[in-house]
Design goal:
InterPro entries: Phage_tail_attach_FII (IPR008018). It comes from Roseisalinus antarcticus. The protein is about 5% helix and about 60% strand. The protein is mostly beta strands and about 100 residues long. It has a single domain, classed as Thrombin, subunit H (Beta Barrel), CATH 2.40.10. The longest helix is centred in the first third of the chain and has 5 residues.
């Protein structure tokens, strides 16, 4: 896993900023942009999403409202962070800030 997150083709450097304290730290994230299908009555809507995967080791306690800055783009964590089955990776849904 260290090799994947160290690979510049897979992961990028980001900055995590806490919404409740003045704490911030650099992290490495794998950025994803899956489509989300939402059903409303008989209609289906496809919308873009922004997700990042970050190691629990690098970011032990992300919370909704925290900021993730990737390059010049700022995002807010939306919804509850979810861990994978092995409890090694957080999946964070982001919205533009």
């Amino acid at each position: 896993m260290d090799r994947i997150y160290a690979n510049p083709s897979m992961a990028v450097v980001a900055l995590w900023i806490s919404a409740t304290t003045s704490e911030e730290r650099p992290i490495r994230v794998i950025r994803r942009a899956p489509d989300r299908i939402t059903e409303f009555g008989a209609a289906c809507f496809v919308s873009d999403t922004t997700m990042v995967d970050v190691r629990v080791h690098d970011l032990p306690d992300p919370r909704p409202g925290d900021l993730i800055v990737i390059g010049a783009d700022s995002f807010t964590i939306q919804g509850e962070p979810l861990r994978d089955r092995e409890r090694l990776i957080w999946s964070l849904e982001l919205r533009p800030s």
